[in-house]
Amino acid sequence: MRLLILAILLLGPVSSAAEPTVVRVVSYNIRVGGMGMDGKRDLGRTAEVLRALRPDIVLLQEVDRGARRSGGVDVAKVLGDALGLESHFGPAIPLQGGFYGNALLSKFPAAGPVRLVDLPGGAEHRVALLLPLRIPTPAGEREVLAGSVHLDFRSDAEMLPNAAQLAALLAAETRPVIFGGDINFWPGTRTLGALEARLTRLAKPKPAGTYPADKPRGEIDHLFVHPAAAWRVRESRVVPEAVASDHRPIVAEIELLPPAGK
Q1: Are strands 250-256 and 142-150 parallel, antiparallel or unpaired?
Q2: Mind listing the domains of the chain with CATH numbers?
Q3: Checking CA distances to 182, which of 30, 83, 119, 242 falls within 20 to 30 Å?
C-alpha cells in the first residue's frame, strides 16, 4: 500500500480514457412559425418539445422573423433563448413585414458567418442555411459545418437539381458535416437519392414516418453526416410528438471521431 501511494505521488493519478465527443442533433419543421396541429401558435410548447430532447444543435424549418402571423417576433431567438442556445436565422422570402426561412440553434459557438445557398425552381424561393461551429474535443476544438434545409415539394424532377447541388457542395467539404431538415421526399425518390449518393443518411427504426404528425405517412425529414468515417451513430429516431407541429421532430446522437491517424 505504501508503495502504491508513493507511486501515485510520484507519477500522478492514472488518467482515464478521454470522453468521447457526442453531439445531439434535432431537426424540426415547426410549421409556419410555430403552428400546432390544433391550430394554436405556441412557441412555449415548441420549446418544451425541444428541451425534452436535450439538443446541442437544432435545425429548424418554416421559421418566421418579424412576420405578423407569428406576432412579429424573431422565432429562432425566442426558441434559442428558451433553450439557452445561440440562434442563427437564414431568410428565404419576405413575409408579412418580416421574413420566413430556416434557422439553426447551437450550444457551440459559430466559427464564421451564416452562408445561404439559393435553391431555385420550386413553388417558392428556398435556401439552405450553413454555419461553421467550433466543437470542443479532448484534443482541442474542431470546426464542423452544420446546415438546415427545407426543399420545395413540387416535384421530384424539379427538386433533383437542388439536391444534387447541395450534395456536391457538402461532399467537397474538408470539415465534418451535419446536415438535415425537411427534404420533402422519401426513400426511393431521386431527390433523396441524390443526397444519399454523396452523404450518409441516418437511418431510423420503423415506424419512420414524420408527416403528417398525427398520422405519419411519409418519411420526409432526414439527417445526414459526411464523411461517414468522421461520425459514429449512437441513436437516430423519430420523436412521437403529434400536436406541436404538422411534422414530427427527428433526433440523432452522433459521436465525432478523432481524425484518421490521431
Answers
A1: unpaired
A2: 19-256 (3.60.10.10)
A3: 83
> What is the C-alpha to C-alpha distance for residues 29 and 210, in angstroms, rounded to an integer?
10
29 vs 2, residue with greater confidence? 29
Cis check for the bond before 13: say yes or no (omega within 30 of 0): no
Q: What cell was used for 87?
A: 440562434
Q: Are 36 and 67 in contact (CB under 8 A)?
A: no
C-alpha cell at 189: 425518390
DSSP-assigned beta bridge partners for residue 95: 98
209/107 Cα distance (integer angstroms): 28
Cell of 125: 424561393
The three cell numbers locating residue 100: 420566413
